[in-house]
Write a structure and sequence with these properties.
Six copies of one chain form a homohexamer. By secondary structure, chain A is of the alpha+beta class. Chain A contains three helices and five strands, in the order βαβαβαββ. In chain A, helix 2 runs antiparallel to helix 3.
């Protein structure tokens, strides 16, 4: 079993905001991250897939194909966009990095299966100090 | 003559937008960077000052003082803010990294003089691929 | 289950030194790392916690709270200090990165539980080439 | 159980090439990576071992010894070399990063056992966007 | 006067080799860098241009245009190529990073003038430890 | 004129301390950096030399020679040492990064001349946020 990771990047605006709370409550819980005029980040996205090396090519997955899928399904919808207002797979969700990681997992899980590998981890670096990793619901406890 | 650089970081939203142009013209010139719903970045700011080492302490400048000034005057107004809507020193300017570098120069030039050093360079890394440097109007041609 | 990592930094002096050994034995085993006049590092500390996203906020943990705890309990006692002489939780221990990782685990384990998450990993980068990770005694074999 | 990682670097040439395929087939499957005139990379190699801290020294492994073994057995044969033509442990294998990770595992597995630790992971960063990790055949499924 | 830098990357094979020397002489002068079977690097290229902000857009140069020119004229000819055998603008030159920087300067000097800016610096990072910068023949002594 | 930069690293202990001041005065001016029990850093040193490419080899300087000189004269005396107590060329000086940069300049200026190049810049990164650059006394005003 080999693990292969592809990094992609995107720049997006967001704010932390719970629609059923007052602005004051949002500010109290989320602090400056709830600024109504938005702020933004350069996100680093690391998609890790796992699989066996193909007997003929010794490749786990065709990197060009993997990269193409991630760009089309994840990076293009997010890059230079507003995560709260414009991204289909974030609709109705608080624009936290945690939710973003789980949403990207849902978008990519089947896409990478078509390429012959299993999705292993979605890792998002929001800043150089804040990182979220999601391994999917199934491997609870094994990591 | 020694050069001392302090790095600070801030996360902000912006869009490239010329108020006298139509949305189509803005889109044509600035591309996805003019998205009306904003996008954002993790900005790396490098402030370089120059001076002679102080005869007693051998320090060019007290780093704590330099850092305090940069945070109060530049980082706090920008961090988790919308550069087009909320930042005094960017008012009436297109929110380009070029304009941001020149505006920060204007804000800091006198502040660092009080600390006994001259401002040498404002460098802003918008992404890991895009960097702007401004050395002030006076040293035209020497660099 | 989501994993959230917070990076913090501190600069400290230390030496590798076994109090029951002669200086020669210390030098033989630890090499230049046992220099009696100390040396030091910029340590990168990564604290990883795990938990479920909170049903209302979709946050695993309030990052501001997590960061505050790490700074108060770990970074402030270590930063600009001598790890062998001045740090309570390293008293009586050889100042190895391994011991430091285990000591920080002990300091933080209960603190993060109060914030509603479980401590998953203490990772310390001593230099860009040397890294130690500790996952606690309980998850032996699962990683 | 503690995990200790040592980074080493090497610069090598390679091409993706299946000896039983035509040049056209190689080009079709591997794209520009199959260029017959070679291309190359700065490889970052991360070797992770695991073990218990030694009761006397509190070290998991003597880093100098670990580093020496990795350099002699892995870095020297690869650095400033052609991975397809000159590296014993890659002979008869397609020069993919996947195969390289598995070959380095085989080379190091017993070597680090002599130092009192178990090999846990071989991680190779081919570029800043492409990363492969191999955990050995035995811990299939646990990671 | 503002300085704007664009980073691009390419992966190439090369060897240090003087055609009028014997293999032994090449080995003596260039060491392992003259390995006849090639080695390679992930090159980081930083192209810095300088100019005044455009009065209407406040941009020094259209980044998309600058990036397109660098990719077409420099990155595509070099990426996944053999610098000694396949790169027009390196023909007849020793494949040193110094020569590469000067050759890229020649290629780009007029191209960026068309975009309204002057070429200021070609910086190439061959490894994280080896860096070459070229400022063109004209500004001898000023930097 | 080409500029060639070599990075080397060292880990050292130091404290900011003026011998003619009281401990209270030292603490007041230098803050936690004057901790009597020392602290330390991983220093990144960048040595930049300038010269013309050699007509035969197209190399500005033999990198192995440059690296050897820097290691012998600068890195070995500093690495795993106490900058205040053990480093000849820092004797009688406050252990500031500014003084360190100027002292390294003095050590290397003639050494690199023997290799056929001129010393251009000593750059020291004390942390990822604090950087000092020294260009020698002669090129005052030109940079």
């Amino acid at each position: 079993m080999l693990y292969l990771t592809r990094r992609e990047r995107f720049n997006a605006a967001h704010r932390m905001y719970h629609p059923e709370w007052t602005d004051d409550k949002n500010l109290e819980v989320f602090g400056k991250c709830s600024n109504p005029n938005w702020h933004g980040h350069n996100y680093n996205l690391f998609v890790t897939v796992k699989g066996e090396p193909h007997p003929e090519t010794s490749l786990v997955v065709n990197l060009k194909e993997l990269s193409r899928v991630i760009r089309e399904k994840v990076v293009e919808p997010l890059d230079h966009r507003n995560m709260n207002l414009e991204v289909d797979f974030m609709e109705g969700k608080i624009a936290s990095t945690e939710n973003l990681a789980m949403a990207i997992w849902e978008v990519l899980e089947k896409e990478v299966q078509v390429l012959g590998v299993k999705l292993h981890c979605i890792r998002i670096e929001e800043t150089e100090n804040n990182i979220v990793e999601y391994y999917g619901e199934i491997n609870h406890g094994n990591y």
